[in-house]
Specification:
five-stranded mixed β-sheet; about 400 residues; 15 helices; seven-stranded mixed β-sheet; alpha/beta; Aspartate Aminotransferase, domain 1
């Protein structure tokens, strides 16, 4: 019997890794093997009546790539299928996804609650925009359930969190916070970039919205920017978030969507390899005489190890390394590295390290850095796909000369 599903394969019943290869495919009449790149801004119609019907916005016809594009749609559907989401939309960057996920639902007079330990741009979007537009923002210690309970003892509209956090690798109890947030009337937005959908599924713990900087592990090769918003309920994404996106325009380019779509085929393989290497690197650093402490979700010494085991299936590729000394010693280690590169990006196939206090989080005040655990001796390491012993040898080169 001839196959009838080759243009839009049915992935129901496939295991997750297979969904990363076949999910979302929409083949053209040319029956291509590799997903097509539709590098177009607009679409044409056979008649004025057809154009009129297309703008009924019932989703049956593409009208403009700011609203939807075949390549972008394939990327969105593939990630939604893998994540277990009902709706997804790809944006030009991770921060575009964070901004739209929050501000599509916030109004003057609303409240938003978030942990202090956030990527600086997320912190700015919540703190500064809230102050400008009459939204009350309250920050808490993300690891303290009592603080969450107090903050959510009165109504709130949104809760935003990242777990593990950037760069301190603090872990938030997703199930507990989601329960508290929903009782307060809030939607929960989780930035899952560090864990990736491979290692953590926030929807399973009650999250309403999940966002990613696809620039990181989803691309994983330092080639392009991109972001994604996914929702647990299709109606919320289509009726609340999509109109905001449609009219404000933070749309991903078709080319970037195509790159991300193809990268997803190897996402599980890359994250598994990077996590295994990161575990070895963390174990090496934990006992090093020149290291004050190392934070890694895969180590038993992580202060939230029990929670990590409950909601993550692996430690990921990110480490927080506290060198003995201060800024001078941390800089020395970075400057002695030969293979590991100094870069503020992460999730790449190449190992990358940065000094958060003077780069990614440099605009925080000293008080804000202290509250977020960003000290002068902290280095953030993103473990890549190199041989783990070469990463260890490079770190040892820098540490041994302190």
């Amino acid at each position: 019997m001839a196959r009838t599903d080759h243009r839009t394969p049915n992935v129901a019943g496939l295991r997750p890794r297979s969904k990363l290869v076949h999910g979302g495919i929409q083949r053209s009449s040319f029956d291509e093997t590799c997903e097509a790149l539709y590098q177009t801004s607009g679409f044409v119609y056979g008649s004025a009546e057809e154009a009129e019907g297309a703008f009924a916005n019932d989703g049956s016809r593409l009208v403009y790539s700011r609203f939807g594009n075949p390549t972008s749609n394939m990327f969105e559907q593939r990630l939604a299928t893998y994540e277990g989401a009902e709706w997804a939309y790809a944006t030009a960057s991770g921060m575009a996804a964070v901004h739209a996920a929050l501000w599509s639902n916030l109004r003057t007079g609303d409240r938003i609650v978030a942990p202090r330990a956030l990527f600086i741009s997320c912190y700015w979007v919540i703190k500064e925009l809230s102050a400008r537009f009459g939204v009350e923002a309250e920050f808490v210690d993300g690891t303290d359930l009592g603080a969450w309970e107090a903050a959510l003892s009165r109504p709130a509209k949104m809760v935003f969190l990242e777990t593990p956090s950037n760069p301190g690798l603090e872990v938030v109890d997703l199930a507990a916070v989601c329960e508290l947030a929903h009782k307060a009337g809030a939607k929960v937005v989780v930035d899952n970039a560090f864990a990736t959908p491979v290692l953590q599924r926030p929807f399973e713990f009650g999250a309403d919205v999940v966002v990613y900087s696809a620039t990181k592990h989803i691309d994983g090769q330092g080639r392009c920017l991109g972001g994604v918003i996914l929702t647990k309920e299709k109606a919320y994404g289509a009726e609340v978030i999509h109109p905001y996106l449609r009219h404000t325009g933070p749309t991903i380019s078709p080319f970037n969507a195509w790159l991300l779509l193809k990268s997803m085929e190897t996402l599980e393989l890359r994250v598994a390899a990077q996590s295994a290497s990161a575990q070895k690197v963390a174990e090496f650093l934990e006992g090093h005489a020149k290291i004050e402490r190392v934070l890694y979700p895969g180590l038993d010494s992580h202060p939230q190890r029990d929670l990590i085991r409950k909601q993550m299936t692996g430690g990921g590729n990110m480490l927080s390394i506290f060198v003995k000394g201060g800024k001078e010693q941390a800089f020395h280690v970075l400057n002695e590295l030969r293979m590991v590169m100094i870069s503020n990006n992460l999730g790449d196939s190449k190992s990358l390290s940065t000094h958060p206090a003077t780069t990614t989080h440099s605009k925080l005040t000293p008080e804000e850095k202290e509250l977020a655990g960003i000290t002068p001796n902290l280095l953030r390491l993103s473990v890549g796909l190199e041989d783990p012993q070469d990463i260890i040898d490079d770190l040892e080169r820098g540490l041994s000369t302190l």
